[in-house]
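User: These chains co-purify. Model them together.
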Amino acid sequence: MIRQTIKTMHKVIKRGEQVRWVSVVDRGWRIPKEITVTLLGQSGRFEWFIFVIGRDSATFPLNIRVVHKAPHTASHISARSVLDGESQIAWNARAIVERGAVGADTYLSFRTLLLSPKARAKTVPSLEIATDDVTAGHAASVDRLSDDALHYCATRGLDQPETKKLLVRAFLSSDAPQAAVKLLENI
Amino acid sequence: MFWLDCNIGSKVTMKYPSIILREPHAKGEILSFAYAGRGQVQDAGGKVIHCAPHTSSTISSRSVSNHGGRSSYRGLVKIIPGAHDTTVSVTCDALLLDADSRSDTYPTMDIAEERVSVAHEARVNRISEEALFYLMSRGLSEADALSLLVNGFAQAVIKKLPMEYAIELHRLLTLETKGGIG
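Assistant: Joint model of the two components:
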């Protein structure tokens, strides 16, 4: 399912259910949105790909909570954001694996590309693990456009705006599902 | 500046060695280890605040939870405007030795400067059954194999400690994993 907005909601994943969300957002909001996903049924699976393009003074405050209550559940959240102007992200994500959720697999990934000196990123990907039979991890990175890549493209005749567009698209599309790649090409 | 932080005692520990990098080209490193045994809560971590350009920092945290203990990593990486060309790397590894133990990770990254490179990763695991089987097939008892693997996990910290502390930590981990204490 592809969404171009994010709304506060609580999703319950039942036994064997597989849910995939793809969110491509380029309009910010002021009041933090609260997304809670509860994996209540055994072998439930949740995937969420979030792509954020921030411009001007857009803000994207988001609180995500993923709770594994049943065994052999999986959740993967991958968020990529590109921030220009004075845009900001403030993300708090918490992956909770409760005691009976053996065999759970959870991974949070937040990658941010800053394109301007006034853009700001604040991310807190948290884990709360209460059982030992689990695969859990998270990763977060904040970076800028590589000077080497910019120089390489300039030596091949590409001007800087075009190069930036190419690199930003490559950053956003690198692990995007096919349906999202088409949307991202229009950014 | 280098912090070597080892948390093995006390019922509740909340300790976060911090570094403020105020001048250009300053470097900071925090190496943290926590062992949470029965009834213990080890809430450790580290904070680094970058206030100047061309600074770099590394935070490496390892924790072990056993017999229902709870270990947490709570860290902060803050880069203020003007601290350009900053490089930060944070890694957190947690080991859970039984189903009653708990591990939490709360890393905060607050980045207000464009020209930086910040990376964070964390993993929570239990003892590899394959590694345990391998050692036991070579004649080690399960307790000895577990002790070897836990000491190997903590080795990155143990090798930086002064000898007396390194021996004490090594013995504590061996006794805890073999059931000698508590």
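Chain B has four helices and ten strands.
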